[in-house]
Every structure is written in C-alpha cells, then in structure tokens.
Specification:
alpha+beta; three-stranded antiparallel sheet; 3 strands; single chain; rod-shaped
Amino acid sequence: MVEFGQMRMERLSRMLLLAGFCVLLGVVVPSPVATAPPDSRHAELRGACYCRAMSQLKCVGVVTRAECNKQCAEALCDDWFWMERLTCWNWGYGG
C-alpha cells in the first residue's frame, strides 16, 4: 500500500524533473533572435547637385556629395553646391 507522503514525494520529484528538463532545454537550444543584420555599407545621403557655368544654373542630378564634387569639377563648373536630401528644381530661376 502507498502512503500519502510517499505519493506526494513522487509527484514533487516528477515536477522537479520536468522543470529541470525545461531549464536544460532552454539553455541548450538557443532561440533565434528576430533582428535584421546590420547594414555593412555606409549610408551616404543623396541630394540635389547644382552647377553654375556661363551664368546658368542647372541641376546635375540627385547624387551624393562626393559624386557632385566629382561631376562638377569634370564639367568645369564655375561654382557648384549640393543640397542634402532635396530633389532637383530646374525651373523658376530667373526672370
């Protein structure tokens, strides 16, 4: 015959065994982390690049600052400037 205290100990030992198994399973099996991998390329901002040559101002395109400097130097612009995060505005400059 099984006594009351012995049944309680069997139940407690089963619960502890199950809890230990769950903890071991949580440690051994790593859970995947839902994060995106870091972007390996350096994000460069793009903006409108304006070139002034022979008293005319024109937009070269929406490029990075380095591309703007390179294109305007190659195009022999008298003056140029780059406007961060803006698009070209090719009309409305003049009388």
